[in-house]
Task: inverse folding
């Protein structure tokens, strides 16, 4: 039975607070589905969107969230091409894309000029029922519990893709900055599953313990280590530095450091989005050392399926704590202070 109204976390304005209120449950239009959401992960992006600290701004009033997992409960016209009622599906950052431009055709659909995003330009997953475009909803393997699947829909797919973009060979070394966070702890695992050696960078005992449990070669504490660049280089096999770095930290300093500790020909994959951060490269040294910068923006529909598949095979496990939807403001506060190892998943029923 689909209710007339359901609970949602609504932010009236940028920089404002979120309130749990009843909102009307809509009917899916052409090409859309209605999903009864059970769980949503909380990504640092949701916090950036609410605070409004990026050069791009979300639409308000806004229901945030883009790591949703639930079941299809209604199909709009033509949506049965993609899903059936009762299918477990995930809602990721992309709500839709045009499916017809050069970017969509090339599998770089996040760069589609008409892309719409959950929890940014469209209402997202901090609610019990959500409308989404059928084409971008990701099938969730039946063996994967919905709470454990939710964080894979942004954090998982994003780092899985970023590691592809780094394009390393098994046995090579990847530095992961922000390694104990939502994206980072999954990056450690996808990298290990791909046969890479990992140098994990983050801070505190809890995050160190988490990273160590994934078999990383070294954990470098960015807050305690006086010379982080030297420590990361020293942790690489030949002392010259890692072959690539996925920076999933939401702080700017991590970028400057990564360009320094990478070995010559090393690849920096920017993923984390600290506000007001620039990547500066001296032209002479950029040529002399031939380091590359290859930013990575979420992943495409295929990446999302692959990343869930790998988790379904048991090679990657989300580290998460479940909290109620009403605890979202506290989750943002903990996130802001770097107190979350792994992810927080919201139970949308409470
Ligand atoms: O498509 C994308 N590129 C994409 C997708 C999803 C998220 C980008 N993001 C962005 C988010 O907007 C955010 O800016 O990635 C960043 C990380 O998101 P998250 O993993 O959801 O955030 P978190 O759980 O708070 O983890 C961040 C970690 O970074 C560490 C913190 O200790 C925390 O564990 N960190 C910080 I802040 N500064 C660091 C530093 N200098 C650092 N780790 C190493 N060095
Ligand atoms: Zn996200």
Result:
């Amino acid at each position: 039975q689909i209710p007339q109204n359901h609970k949602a976390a609504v932010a009236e304005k940028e920089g404002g607070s979120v309130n749990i209120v009843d909102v009307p449950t809509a009917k899916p239009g052409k090409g859309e589905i209605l999903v009864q959401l059970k769980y949503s992960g909380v990504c640092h992006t949701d916090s950036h969107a609410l605070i409004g600290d990026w050069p791009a701004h979300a639409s308000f009033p806004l229901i945030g969230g883009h790591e949703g997992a639930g079941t299809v409960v209604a199909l709009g016209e033509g949506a049965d091409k993609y899903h059936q009622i009762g299918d477990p599906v995930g809602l990721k950052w992309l709500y839709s894309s045009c499916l017809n431009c050069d970017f969509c055709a090339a599998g770089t659909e996040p760069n589609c000029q008409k892309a719409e995003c959950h929890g940014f330009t469209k209402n997202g997953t901090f609610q019990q029922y959500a409308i989404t475009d059928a084409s971008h909803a990701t099938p969730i393997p039946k063996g994967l519990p919905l709470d454990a699947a939710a964080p894979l829909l942004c954090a998982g797919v994003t780092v899985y893709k970023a590691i592809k973009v780094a394009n390393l060979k098994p046995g090579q070394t990847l530095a992961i900055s922000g390694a104990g966070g939502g994206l980072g702890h999954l990056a450690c695992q996808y990298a290990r599953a791909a046969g890479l050696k990992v140098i994990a960078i983050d801070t505190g005992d809890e995050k160190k313990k988490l990273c160590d449990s994934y078999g990383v070669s070294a954990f470098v504490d960015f807050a305690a280590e006086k010379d982080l660049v030297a420590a990361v280089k020293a942790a690489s096999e030949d002392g010259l530095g890692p072959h690539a770095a996925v920076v999933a930290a939401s702080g700017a300093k991590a970028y400057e450091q990564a360009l320094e500790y990478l070995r010559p020909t090393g690849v920096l994959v920017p993923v984390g989005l600290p506000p007001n951060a620039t990547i500066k490269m001296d032209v002479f040294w950029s040529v002399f050392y031939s380091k590359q910068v290859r930013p990575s923006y979420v992943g495409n529909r295929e990446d999302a399926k692959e990343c869930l598949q790998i988790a379904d095979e048991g090679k990657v496990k989300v580290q998460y704590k479940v909290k109620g939807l009403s605890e979202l403001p506290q989750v943002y506060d903990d996130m802001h202070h770097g107190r979350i190892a792994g992810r927080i998943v919201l139970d949308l029923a409470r």
Summary: The two ends are 19 Å apart (CA to CA). Residues 267 and 292 are 5 Å apart (CA to CA). The pocket of zinc ion (ligand 2) is lined by residues 43, 45, 66, 93, 154 (CB under 6 Å). The chain is about 25% helix and 25% strand.
